[in-house]
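does this look right to u?? zinc ion version
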Amino acid sequence: MVGAKGLWIVDFHTHLGDFPLFNVRLNAEELIDLMNANGIERAVVFSLPNELTLNAVKRYPDRLLGFVWVNPKEEASVSLVRKAVNEWGFRGVKLHPLIDGYLPDDPIVYPIMEEASRLRIPVIFHSGHPPWSLPWHYGNLADRFPDVTIVLGHMGHGHIVYINASIDIARKHENVVLETSGMPMHSKIKEAVERVGVTRVVYGSDAPFGHPAFEILKVKVSGLTDEELRMVLRENALKLLSSGSG
Ligand SMILES: [Zn+2]
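got this back:
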């Protein structure tokens, strides 16, 4: 399980770029350093522009896995998803309804989901902020696209009502996976594993907004068994990333 350098964790949520609003920044080299220092073997990356991700994945193909970040309001979004997967080797899609201003179950999202279904890739969404990224809308989307894996980034984020609703939605919909970054309550990770199932919770750091050192610790102190930790910190992510048409 542990690689040559003691690296074994898979991080399902990282970003590259400069974010002055948050006073954080991260380039590909710094991400690799951060991974090495925190036991992380591989990381999912999504950034804008997507070329940042592409260049990083090209440079570190054995460590980084690209997801393409698209805005469904842009006409080229579906063809960009196809290109990213077929030509760039990306493994999934990132959507941010809060930033781009649409509801997750709005029909404008359907073509992206249909393409994800054809390509057999997961779609990760930001979740946890009104009005555009609340769990109930993801339940509707999960109903309509039962064969697409929907990853709820932040599993409801900071608000207990949204965190509990994310767990409820995942319990009801087998194609919903919960990702742990930015959600403050370690106890809710254990609860998610118990109520949703150990295969549908994945660790993420949201670096550089979150730090892997505390995000990993949050999972480790949540009360999971060693086997459950191995699933949440590594195996579940690898399984999601091995889907795809290639
Ligand atoms: Zn993020």
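Residues 91 and 171 are 25 Å apart (CA to CA). idk if thats expected tbh
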